[in-house]
């Protein structure tokens, strides 16, 4: 896509049609591009706002090939995809960003950690698990993680007792020292085809401890300027090391001793960057479109502080979603309501989110927590 | 739509599938609503980002009826629609907002002006044209306007000479005194079903004089606080007088003598409110969705000053659009690029727009004018 490319007819492919694909597509459509979604669910959230859907799974070689060949450039909203076929297409000069090689590396959390460690990026102490004895190399308690396939708290286990050791993860895994966490931080980093790089503000994530899903994001994080710069530097170096093109969500631990460790990296728009839609000059969703279509990156400037709260399906409900409290919640000023259009709710399923702006971050948090109390995503069936 | 209504399955209908319908639909989809577009052009801009399109014209009684009956609530992005069939549906308790009665009144610029005048809203001196002599009631020069069907500078004529009088508008029209304009101002006003009302900041419009199309919008207008309040008050009163529900673009003249006159009112999102997408806590496009679905209005707070520039098709080109200068323009920081996805460009056709944010309005204007110089919408055919 050089300067003579006709962007008014640009065809973009997105693998995955959930909320991330949906908002990415909306931003691509804002710029007038043609968008095709590949997803196995007919009428998935992203397909509802796009030109076209190819119905197919993420390991369906034929459909993946069709998508890539019919589009000028293809990107994705999730990393659990068949990389083999994408690598072949990439090697045959089809445009896929981030590259399937980067995707493959990141799919394996152990290899990801190893590369970062080798390149001098601070990560918590970790060790490959080959034998049962390996589990106790750092003593107990310790964190065990699957190498592949984990997300939203799945594939992670805290081993505290001998009994936990018996019930440990049985697939390929590694252990990680339990760090003394003060805050969980995150930062979105964008890098385009030319290597131009841009970091968003550092944010602070709070988790729903019942299921270990990121629940609340405060932008910016309440940390001092030195630490802020350190986190940015580490995150930018991480993406350079990966040679990634697109948007990357870098999750980090800040320990009580003031150390910073990279926890993991997502090679796509990230839940911790939803706030950028309302808060930043260019959202992470527009930024990935710019990055993969060889356009200059947009400004990552924070226009207003904000707090984002995920709307998870209530425990005890499934079926057609019902949004309880929408009238009262939308009374809250500077609140933006997102609902993804998923046909079925399930306990803790990500159904939507809200972002509340306020010049004063504490006020934004107060308003966001009030909305969190009011808004409940119930369902047509009690379970 | 009371508090027990299930908003997760809300079906919204939009009459008209251009850029206004497109962005309205994107905001409705953000909130998870189901959107159907009625438009005669297959795959029009709004249909590309919506669930469904009914292909039909704006005077097609059958298709209008189908849309209204299949949706929980129907709104529109243009006012040149068959109001007769919509009035019948409205009277049969189908939800259509703004009401077709308001739409009908506004369609006739003379009746609109008369009502505002009767209710004490300041408007320029005007007079119905029944005979040729009426044209000269205020002397020359004078403005002649068609009562119905005008938009974007069409249906407006400046009569200066005897010759102009011969070439005057021949359909139903009225004349308006030529006021000594200092600035053309505009303000978006929202009113919901409960009568809650909210005004956006007052903005200043600059026009492309070749075709009298609004070209540049500066938000906020550079006017003092007293005048600002006066404009807001006049605009709010105008919408109350109309008993309108939805979004209204109120255009005003500020004279060199400091008087303020309402020029005209559009009963829909307005070009002068495009800036709200990036600049305000709630965009005009989300606001209309909230207003017509009986949700509370969102905050109209200006988060950042900005300047919006329309991207009009270059003179001398038609056919498939080509965006010249996109790489260089997108280098400009805090610039948001909108391209509508129209398949054909024409001279002066509205093909897209950009919005540039900056804490300093003059800087925003400088950046926007630079982008305007760089970005050219050319076409596949020279004419």
Major sheet summary line of chain A: 9 strands, antiparallel
The oligomeric state is homodimer
Shape of chain A: globular
**Which fold does the CATH topology of the largest domain in chain A refer to?**
D-amino Acid Aminotransferase, Chain A, domain 1
Structural class of chain A: alpha+beta
* SSE order of chain A: EHEEHEHHHEEEHEEEEEHEEHHEEHEEHE
| Major interchain interface with per-chain residue totals | A-B, 47 and 47 residues
Q: Which CATH C-level class of the largest domain in chain A is it?
A: Alpha Beta
Question: What gap, in angstroms, lies between the N and C termini of chain A?
Answer: 51 Å
Radius of gyration of chain A: 21 Å
The CATH homologous superfamily of the largest domain in chain A: ATP-grasp fold, B domain
Key features of this structure:
homodimer; 383 residues; Rossmann fold; D-amino Acid Aminotransferase, Chain A, domain 1; 4 domains; nine-stranded antiparallel sheet; four-stranded parallel sheet; 11 helices; 19 strands; 27% helix; nucleotide-binding (chains A, B); decarboxylase (chains A, B); EC 6.3.4.18 (chains A, B); lyase (chains A, B); phosphoribosylaminoimidazole carboxylase activity (chains A, B)
């Amino acid at each position: 896509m050089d300067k003579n490319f006709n962007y008014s007819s640009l065809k973009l492919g997105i693998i995955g049609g959930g909320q991330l694909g949906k908002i990415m597509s909306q931003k691509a459509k804002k710029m007038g591009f043609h968008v095709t979604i590949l997803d196995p669910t007919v009428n998935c959230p992203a397909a509802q706002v796009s030109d076209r859907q190819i119905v197919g799974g993420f390991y369906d070689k034929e459909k993946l090939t069709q998508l890539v060949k019919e589009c000028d450039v293809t990107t994705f909203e999730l990393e659990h995809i068949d990389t083999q076929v994408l690598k072949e297409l990439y090697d045959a000069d089809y445009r896929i960003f981030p590259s399937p090689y980067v995707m493959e590396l990141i799919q394996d959390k152990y290899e990801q950690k190893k590369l970062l460690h080798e390149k001098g990026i601070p990560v918590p102490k970790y060790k490959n698990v080959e034998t049962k004895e390996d589990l106790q190399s750092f003593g107990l308690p310790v964190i065990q993680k699957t190498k592949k396939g984990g997300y939203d708290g799945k594939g992670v286990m805290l081993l505290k007792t001998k009994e936990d050791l018996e019930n440990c993860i049985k697939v390929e895994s590694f252990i990680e020292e339990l760090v003394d966490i003060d805050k969980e931080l995150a930062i979105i980093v964008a890098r385009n085809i030319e290597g131009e790089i841009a970091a968003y503000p550092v944010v602070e994530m709070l988790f729903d401890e019942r299921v270990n899903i990121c629940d609340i994001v405060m932008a910016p994080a309440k940390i001092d300027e030195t630490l802020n710069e350190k986190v940015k530097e580490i995150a930018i170096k991480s993406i350079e090391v990966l040679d990634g093109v697109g948007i990357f969500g870098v999750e980090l631990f800040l320990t009580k001793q003031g150390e910073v460790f990279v926890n993991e990296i997502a090679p796509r728009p990230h839940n911790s960057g939803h706030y950028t839609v309302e808060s930043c000059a260019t959202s992470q969703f527009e930024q990935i479109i710019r990055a993969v279509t060889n356009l200059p990156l947009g400004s990552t400037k924070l226009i207003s502080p904000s707090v984002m709260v995920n709307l998870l399906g209530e425990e005890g409900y499934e079926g057609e979603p019902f949004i309880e409290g929408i009238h009262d919640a939308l009374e809250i000023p500077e609140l933006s309501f997102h609902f993804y259009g998923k046909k079925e709710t399930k306990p803790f399923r990500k159904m939507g989110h809200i972002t509340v702006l306020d010049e004063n971050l504490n006020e934004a948090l107060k308003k966001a927590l009030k909305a969190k109390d009011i808004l409940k995503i119930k369902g047509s069936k009690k379970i």
